[in-house]
Design brief:
Layout (H helix, E strand, L loop, with lengths): L6 E12 L2 E5 L22 H10 L5 E2 L11 H6 L5 E5 L5 E6 L28 E7 L3 E4 L3 E5 L15 E5 L6 E4 L3 E6 L2 H22 L9 E10 L2
Antiparallel strand pairs: 1-2, 1-3, 1-12, 4-5, 4-12, 6-11, 7-10, 8-9, 11-12
Length: 236
Amino acid sequence: MLGGSSAVTTHGGTFVTAGRDVIQRIDPAPSYPRIPTNDSITSSDEKDSEVYARLLWLKGHGFPLWSPNPGTHLPVEYAKSGIQIGDVGIINYKGDFDFLFNICLPVDHPVNSNHVPEGFKPLSKPDRMDVNSEMEHYHGSFLVSRAMTGSTRTPLIHSDDLGVPSDYIFKCASQEGAILILPEGSYREDLLTIGTFQRYASQNGERWYYYANRVRHRAAVNGSLHLVTGHNKSTA
């Protein structure tokens, strides 16, 4: 994510391989952290990152990352921009997005730094008209899981040059809950031309898994690669 940022969610597809075929599911179904579908799975069986992701996932803002900041092992250029549309990576057991490469940038771009699959040919960067960008949450906003309610002691202020609430009050009617506070609000970007990414992924997905597992040694299980088609970001 952006330097100093503290919140990001990603939107995109996961890929599963079947022989030489690659199937893309645009609705994400991440394997790490788990998104439990079995009623017998309780929060006591999960890591904190998994509970957080499961509860806030239902808010419809993409996959909530437990640790949104880019790792120190990544290129400086990537740390400046954070997660971008076109990123391919894995959500690991810690709730981090493990970036591998970006399909819309050249091989020698500082973000890719020549670390791309064999035979890599970048997809053209989406035109501005093909990406929806908007401010989604204003200063002082917050997200809470469904069993929770929240309020502030002072009214939310929708102006960059004025203060934000200093006190938040949250109540939970369940044994588990998740909260994301956005002191400086957040903005989102979403790719509109999903079909272009679908076709490109279908043509290259097998190479991506080979690269992730044989070259980068990530042990990416079936269905764990993600292609980012949108993101929400906050600078604090």
